[in-house]
Amino acid sequence: MNTKILYVDDEPINLKLFEINFAKKYDVFIANDGFQGLELLDKESGIIVIISDMKMPQMNGIEFIKKAKERYPDKKYYILTGFEITSEIREALNTGLILKYFSKPFNIKEIDKTINDVIM
Amino acid sequence: MNDRKKLEDQLKDYNLRLEELVKERTDELELTNDELSATNEELYGESNIIIQKNQELNEAIELIKSTQSQLVQTEKMASLGMLTAGVAHEVNNPLNYLMGTYVGLENYFQEHGSNDAPKIELLLNSMQVGIERISNIVKSLNQFSRDNDSLEENCDIHAIIDNCVNMLHNMLKHKVELTKEYFNDTIIVKGNVGQLHQVFVNIISNAFQAIPAKGNIIIKSKIIGAKAIIEIIDDGVGIEKKYLSKITDPFFTTKAPGEGSGLGLSITQRIINEHHGEMKFESEVDKGTKFILSFPLK
């Protein structure tokens, strides 16, 4: 069975492309905001890797991950952002809220390797 | 006889009065003299105070000037930082589409093949190179205006210069032959990555502006003792002798109003000082200018 991963981003093209590029190796779930992301996590208990965009309306990536981690502390959380590292992301790294942050444009090999390492 | 005695007495009397008068006048004069020399001393003291006040005023003016230049710069960098962070985010997102599309297409052709594999490979490669180049430019911009005051970062001098040249590429490409003669190993100094970007962008831009039509810029790096030495050499118009001591003064510029703030080198100098480095320059009119920077190695 493929590893289940969730990708959250408010831009539909990013979601679609992520799905296309990772669908072969992983079961990809997508959500276009944090609220939908939380719903999906409640429904699909097998998701173990969560990657979220940073800048989204209403709830940003870190806020979404904070909420998700309260409910599911053992899952692995990552940020994929178009920004350079910000103080908010740095803090999330320091406190262990997220394990790593990826930059856009994404590097598929880097993300793939990271997922591989945590599911091993 | 009586008359004579009378006359003598009279004369004595006069003499005595004269002596008294002279003494009186002398005393008066001495008093005036004392008064005058006291006034003189007072005046002298006051002129010292005036000279001292004058000096204090001059120092205050210098302080105001440099504070003003720092404020202008801080303000400028803050707006620039906000702008580039915003632009970077806006560019990185569509760039992410392109990267996703590229990866998707590459996988697709790997799986399904094509009738003209070399052509597809060329097209895909061009796309990838384009994406990487845009991505590098955006990264360089971010480096330039990072929101970070730390002076404890590891600064890779060659990577920083490469970034700056990258940023200035469009400006340089038709006018300047740029040669890098780097030390054959990585050079790391301790400091602030963003601020060091500003230093090199300033000096390389100055070198570029000194070149009227076409010319050369050479960037050399080496290690001497415990110091990293970086030289930026141009063969442009050079700097007149009378200006050499002024070029790092805030607001000093020989450019037309509106073309240069006169802040570039004063800021550069300040950043270098904060990095415990040194900046020297040699220049000859019509021959060119050489900037020599040195930084203590980490």
Give keywords.
heterodimer, A: about 120 residues, 5 strands, about 45% helix, globular, B: about 300 residues, alpha+beta, five-stranded mixed β-sheet, two-stranded antiparallel sheet
Secondary structure elements and pairings:
The complex is a heterodimer of chains A (120) and B (298).
Chain A: E1 3-8, H1 12-22, E2 26-31, H2 34-43, E3 47-53, H3 61-71, E4 76-81, H4 87-94, E5 100-103, H5 108-119
Parallel strand pairs in A: 1-2, 1-3, 3-4, 4-5
Chain B: H1 2-112, H2 117-144, E1 153-156, H3 157-172, E2 176-181, E3 188-191, H4 193-210, E4 215-224, E5 227-234, H5 241-244, H6 264-274, E6 278-284, E7 288-296
Strand content of chain A: 15-25%
Mean pLDDT of chain A: 92
Q: Helical proportion of chain A? A: 40-55%
Q: Which oligomeric form is depicted?
A: heterodimer
* Number of H/I helices of chain B: 6
Helix content of chain B: 55-70%
Strand order of the largest sheet of chain B: 2-4-5-7-6
* Total helical segments of chain A: 5
* Strand-pairing-aware structural class of chain B: alpha+beta
| Main β-sheet description of chain B | 5 strands, mixed
Extended strand count of chain A: 5
Strand order of the largest sheet of chain A: 2-1-3-4-5
Describe the structure.
The complex is a heterodimer of chains A (120) and B (298). Chain A has 120 residues and is α/β, with parallel strands linked by helices. Chain A has helices spanning 12-22, 34-43, 61-71, 87-94, 108-119, and strands at residues 3-8, 26-31, 47-53, 76-81, 100-103. In chain A, helix 2 packs parallel to helix 3. Chain A is globular, with a radius of gyration of 13 Å. The two termini of chain A are 14 Å apart. Chain B has 298 residues and is α+β, with helices and mostly antiparallel strands. In chain B, strands 2-4-5-7-6 form a 5-stranded mixed beta sheet, with helices on one face. In chain B, helix 1 runs antiparallel to helix 2 (117-144) and helix 4 (193-210) packs antiparallel against helix 6 (264-274).
